[in-house]
Amino acid sequence: MALYSAAAAVLEGLERGQGGVKSLVYNSGFPHVRQLYALVSETLRYAPVLEKLLDGAALLQAEKKLQPHLAKVLVYDLLFGKGLKCGGRWKVLARRHRARLEAELARLKVRHKVSRNEDLLAPAQADSAAASQVPRYIRVNTLKTCVDDVIDFFKRQGYSYLGKAASVEELKALSGKKFLLDLHLPELLVFPPQTDLHDNLLYTSGHIILQDKASCLPAFLLDPAAGSHVIDACAAPGNKTSHLAAILRNKGQIFAFDVDPKRVATTNTLLARAGVTGCQLAQQDFLTVDPTDPKYSRVTHILLDPSCSGSGMVTRGPGEEVAPSAERLQALAGFQRRVLSHALNFPALQRLVYSTCSVHREENEDVVQAVLQEWGSAFRLVNALPCWPCRGLDAFPGAESCLRASPAETLTQGFFVAVLERGGEGADAPSSLPVAAEENPQPREETEPGAAPKKRRRKKQRVK
Questions:
Q1: What is the pLDDT of residues 126-170, one digit of tens each?
Q2: Residue 456 pLDDT more than 90?
Q3: Please, which residues bridge with residue 381 across strands?
Q4: 235 marked as part of a ligand binding site
Q5: How far is it, in rounded angstroms, from Cα 235 to Cα 307?
């Protein structure tokens, strides 16, 4: 299914109440879900403006066969997006009316006494626009290439490499065809916001992964040695799994789980494109995995990124949780405590990373505190990445060892990360604290498209 037709179908599904943006995008069958999600979200954000433009230019009256949802998608990408880089006959149709649409947009700006497109948005939409200025991060997939070769490739495509960033302010200043090496993660390149690399050869061949910086932190901080046995407990759509494989250099074993069959299929496609081997991907609820099963007896590292409210994601559409109810947060936190405590039962476990894309204390510091209390001295918090500017909320002694991320302070999606390590000999066994559990929480998508090992790997396949 073509991108614009798929986006129009999602918009129609939203209007009919068939689901939220995420569920409709993931169930669409379109292969590039991130690209589709971004287009749908931005079209929704500009919907009031697009409706005025369509009325003023009389586009639907001129093109009787053009459906309203498809018209909105086409006009958004023509005037505010990437300029209709695909679309076939629909691209030809929209471009035929470009002059009228641009004239109507100019008249709209004059009437509202503004000069920028973003100024046409309502205040809440403008806040979202500011949040969408998070840079485009790409993680170099060291299973297939190396940082130097990727930098050379982009330089040959006309991009200007500015070296390693020294501050977040340098990332904010990026514009045009300029890019930097991230200041924290050694295999993460940073491009200006809205840079579209979905059609780039490096992306389609799996040499780079489009992944938000905050989403790269869990695998980077877990940092398993090559040859380790690792569990990715809630793996879909697979960006973190592929990151773990790169850190392991495809040496060792990854056990990856997700309960949703369509998300498992998406994950399998991404892992194959990234060149991941040594990964057993299973459609299974992690809570049903038996820690005493001999096949997991050598698991020393676990990455746990469970279902959450998704409140840290900077783009949302109708049907997405912006401010979940207290009851919803309580149910999610109960499930998260249950799954985190379950993960700590693996007998050889030495290090675990717990992460969410939520900004709520109930899903973050409170979950970690409850489980640490449950397990006594068996596990302790590690002071993760001390140079990171945003720390955990002051919810309990030691919570500052956790990390938080946000669009305003770290130029990333909203995120939370805690690193737990096993305590010394004679550590206490867990006590039996009751937890409320949500039996079937809705899976949430990871924030779009890190870094891999701390040392640069040898060059593998040179990018030509």
A1: 445 545 678 999 999 999 999 999 999 999 999 999 999 999 999
A2: no
A3: 420
A4: yes
A5: 11
The pTM for the full model equals 0.71
Residue 77 marked in a binding site: no
Question: Coil, strand, or helix at residue 12?
Answer: helix
Q: Would you call 395 exposed, middle or buried from its count of C-beta atoms within 10 A (0-12, 13-18, 19+)?
A: middle
CA 278 – CA 269 distance, rounded (Å): 15
To which CATH superfamily is domain 127-210 assigned?
Sun protein; domain 3 (3.30.70.1170)
* 293 belongs to an annotated ligand binding site: no
Question: In this structure, what token pair is assigned to residue 203?
Answer: 């992306």
238 is in an annotated binding site: yes
Q: Which residue bears the tokens 């640069």?
A: 456
Distance CA 100, CA 56 (A): 9
Catalytic residue among 146, 216, 308, 357: 357
| 357 flagged as catalytic | yes
Using alpha carbons, select from 257, 322, 263, 321 the residue that is nearest to residue 290.
257
Q: Residue ranges of the domains in the chain? A: 1-120, 127-210, 213-422
For the 213-422 domain, the top CATH level (class) is alpha beta
Average pLDDT, the chain: 84
| Residues 312, 413 contacting (CB under 8 angstroms) | yes
Half-sphere exposure of 126 (CA within 13 A, CB side): 8
Report whether 130 belongs to an annotated binding site: no
